[in-house]
Design a protein that fits this description.
Number of strands: 2
Low-confidence stretches: none
Number of helices: 5
Strand order of the largest sheet: 1-2
Distance between the termini: 17 Å
Order of helices and strands: HEHHEHH
Strand content: under 5%
Structural class: mainly alpha
Helix content: 40-55%
Shape: globular
Length: 101
């Protein structure tokens, strides 16, 4: 279910492209209401190639990092890799679990 939801958000935000541009992704991730510094940290991890955009994998990673940060876990690529169990769902202002932006 997470994959289907994240994929639908990605398609909507990317306009059918293979990448989401930085300003669009940033606006979406701000719905998490995390501090700006935390969002920058998450962006730097998700956009590891420093392209100013993220692909589907980067988008999934960003959303998982947001969810971890919202639950008091320091966001890092290593944390995502070593996380045990199901990832918590990210809480995004104005979005229901089954909605797209």
């Amino acid at each position: 279910q997470e994959e289907a939801l994240f994929s639908s958000w990605f398609r909507e935000l990317s306009g059918g492209d293979v990448r989401i541009m930085g300003p669009t992704a940033a606006g979406f991730l701000k719905r998490s209401e995390l501090p700006k510094e935390k969002l920058k940290q998450i962006w730097d991890i998700a956009d590891s190639g420093r392209t100013g955009s993220i692909d589907l994998d980067g988008f999934y990673l960003a959303l998982r990092l947001v969810a971890l940060a919202q639950n008091g876990i320091e966001p890092s690529a290593a944390t995502c890799t070593s996380f045990q169990g199901n990832f918590p769902a990210p809480r995004l202002q104005g979005l229901q679990a089954a909605s797209v932006p």
